[in-house]
Amino acid sequence: MSSLILPAVLNGLTMGAVYALIALGLTLIYGVLHIINFAHGSLLMLGLYAAYFLFSYLGIDPYLAIIFVVPAFFVLGYLLQRVVIAPMSAGSEQNVLLVTLALSLVIDNLALFFWTSNTRTVDIPYAWDTVEVLGAYLTKGRVIAFFAALLVAGLMWLFMTRTRTGSAIRAVAIEKRGAEIVGIDVNHTYALTFGIGTACVALAACLLLPTFYATPQVGYTFVLVAFTTVVMGGMGSLPGALVAGLALGVIEALGGLFLGESLGQIGIFVAFILTLLFRPAGLLGRKPT
Amino acid sequence: MMRLASYGQVALVVAVLAYLGAVYVMPSQVWMGFTINALAMTIVALSWNVTGGFGGMSSFGHAAMYGTGAYASAVLQVQFGVNAWLAFGAGIMAGALMGGFIGALSFRYGLKGSYFALVTLAFAEVLRICAASFNITGGGRGLQLAIEPGVAALQFNKDRVLTYTLLLAIVALVMALTAWLKYSRFGAYLVAVRENEDAARALGIDTYRVKVTAMAISGAFGGLAGAIYLQLWLFIDSAVVYGVAISVVALIGPIIGGAGTVWGPLVGTLGLHLLGEGAKTALHNAPGLNFVLYAVVLIVALRFLPQGIMGLAARIGAFGRKGGDDA
Amino acid sequence: MLEVRNLTKRFGGLVAVSDASLDVPEGAIVGLLGPNGAGKTTCFTIIAGFTRADSGSVRLNGQDITGMAPHRICGLGMVRTFQIVQPFAGLTVQENIAVGAYLRHDNRRDAMAEARAIGKRLGMGAMLDRPASSLTIAGRKRLEIARALATGAKLLLLDEVMAGLIPTEVTEIVGIIRQIRDEGHTFLMIEHVMQAVMSLAETAYVLNYGKMIAQGTPRQLVRDPAVVEAYLGHGAAARLQEAEHA
């Protein structure tokens, strides 16, 4: 058994990197807009389908598809916030959650209607090649996703701290009224942030597809994992999301190893409940006073 | 009991009652079957309404109580051979306990708003996975009741009219309990907690107890709905009774009909089912499209009908009597 | 009736309340004064059970209530109001008051009747059926008092009940408080505005930077150099004296 633990941990880390990438977008949106985007998983599902269709109709490799899908999803996210979420929720936190829940229902069920519940996969043999790391055999596609996630988290951090737009976003996140007074367009910044968050999830989709699949239901599975990651990482914290995503990947892999495939999924939700109850500020966060 | 605030609300309620009565004489059995489903879901909607409507604690995981009611009853009947009536009662109890447990844990640690919504969802997921993983709950195959129609086993599926009448009676009972709740001290405390928890505490209300009790009552209604589902279909599996669809329908109905009103959950759930059924017929049973429609209606209602259909109706021909009673 | 002894409360490095003590005898109207940020509201929230003190004790009618939950304290006969009024917005005025009245009446009819009677006593008869959210600031302040009174509590803690009111409204509230006191209630009231307390309170305490710096009749307090300095800044008392002598 013990010989299986290290490979499970390493595999968990590669999956966790994808969780982290999905959660980065969600936590960014929470940190700035202070809203919980329930449709985040559905947007991931859309991203998976976008990459799938680009591959199956135009033969575009999912890794190459990033340059088309990510900008398109940035625009999609921007418009969703501007046209649907902000106007329809009328400023109430509970309404935002309900509006994004409704949005996820619309997206998921339309996908089911148009694309059926068939499982779609792309055939990219090299993504399934294995790499030996510390005696464990890891899937190449997952290893690529792992390093891409670290890279994106780093780039995002640089963007937030080193650019004007990043500073504006941080200003709005901390003090909305103050930012307004110094001339920052808050609604635009909100939509921009939502767009970036959506672009992140689209990137995650492109990295995930080669070793995963697309179905209309896949969003719901991931949205709960993403929430768990965000809450464990401390709502709104980018480094927190990265660490928590990796941790959850490991928890899931070890859960699967010890409890079996079906019951193994429980680990993530139990982690979620425990975090919400005992450390609502996240594992790295300070306890609220 | 049922205090209505306007001619609009009276008209709405009369229309609902007229429809429910008309189902008896409609030539096609399809209407009755469809309304049976709508009434069964109305009970979950009424369950959500206790906490989400009166208490302002919006849950995204009412399937947790629904599924627990269904599974408790099914496990007792199938695995332990317990009498269906007793198992039915146990289902209600189990729902109440699950509601109380989730509430006690969540409120003990001060969860509110979106956090509470998400934690309830997570509980429903944990229970779904457990139910799908253990042998006693039938694992991935679910549980099937032995078919023995009759009063002894609480199985009336053969007689649609009787099933429908029983469901009408149960919905009426749960609504009467809701009305009683609304006009009781507990109801006033629950609304006070929703409107302003600090002020409620200052006025001598043990807000923790009020909230946990509300979850237990809501859980009892939810467990009841789950136990009814079992007796209607004689089969349950975890993906359905602990599924997200239950949690979603539980909250959309009351929000559209009017959260925190006695009639809202019935009006909303019935309206939604009519709409969904109409769309299904028009679109030749396309899967999932009824949920698209529900979701669009929900978004529109959140934006334009903050008090739901009952709130809209309250503004049509309001009675001279002043007051905030909107049934 | 109320004895507060040596309350201390720190938030991080900041000492919000430091070793504060006060007494409220039965039937009195006692003021708690101090400039903004002096720790008055923190003091209040501790007394009413909303915040735990780091040290010190609170006794109500001889019973130790330190650290007790707010609803239990209310049940023992002491109730607070809020500086930022907190009506139950979706309820009518009468239903708002009834929430308080339910503490002593377990059915709706009695609680609503009690609420009506109290509303009328406080001059809110015409507003009883209006939604609480439609009230003016003055109306909401009255509602706060009415709700508190409806719990049957004998000791009312009023947090800046005069703030934001125009002079005629202040006069009305002052009248109402006197009337309630004469019916057998006791008050501890926080006020930032000294004039309001001057006309009501027999005794007042002054907090500054979390410390009790003075106690006495309002008339004594306005002549107390420490109090004047707390309000007007360092050196103000001396300057005032000079001005008087000049």
From TrEMBL, chain A:
Localization per record: Cell membrane
Segments traversing the membrane: 12-36, 43-60, 66-84, 96-115, 143-160, 190-212, 266-285
Protein's UniProt keywords contain Glycosyltransferase: no
Gene Ontology MF annotations: transmembrane transporter activity
Any GO BP: amino acid transport
Alphabetical keyword list: Amino-acid transport, Cell membrane, Membrane, Transmembrane, Transmembrane helix, Transport
Main localization of the protein described in the UniProt heading: membrane
Protein family according to the UniProt entry: Belongs to the binding-protein-dependent transport system permease family. LivHM subfamily.
Entry protein name: Branched-chain amino acid transport system permease protein
Organism encoding this protein: Paracoccus alkenifer
TrEMBL record, chain B:
This protein's record includes keyword Lyase: no
Molecular function in Gene Ontology: branched-chain amino acid transmembrane transporter activity
Keyword Membrane appears in the UniProt entry: yes
Top-level lineage group: Bacteria
Location(s) in or outside the cell: Cell membrane
Stretches that traverse the bilayer: 7-25, 31-51, 63-80, 86-107, 161-181, 212-232, 239-266, 286-305
Name recorded for this polypeptide: Branched-chain amino acid transport system permease protein
Keywords assigned: Cell membrane, Membrane, Transmembrane, Transmembrane helix
GO cellular component: plasma membrane
Pfam families: BPD_transp_2
Topology term for the membrane: Multi-pass membrane protein
From TrEMBL, chain C:
Chain segments annotated as coiled-coil in the UniProt record: none
SUPFAM superfamilies noted in UniProt: P-loop containing nucleoside triphosphate hydrolases
Cellular component terms (Gene Ontology): plasma membrane
InterPro entries linked to this entry: AAA+_ATPase, ABC_AA/LPS_Transport, ABC_transporter-like_ATP-bd, BCA_ABC_TP_C, P-loop_NTPase
Protein name (Swiss-Prot/TrEMBL): Amino acid/amide ABC transporter ATP-binding protein 1, HAAT family (TC 3.A.1.4.-)
Signal sequence annotation: none
Positions of the ABC transporter domain: 2-234
GO biological process: D-alanine transmembrane transport; L-alanine transport; L-isoleucine import across plasma membrane; L-valine import across plasma membrane
Organism field: Paracoccus alkenifer
GO molecular function, one term: ATP binding
Database matches in CDD domains: ABC_Mj1267_LivG_branched
Keywords tagged on the record: ATP-binding, Nucleotide-binding, Transport
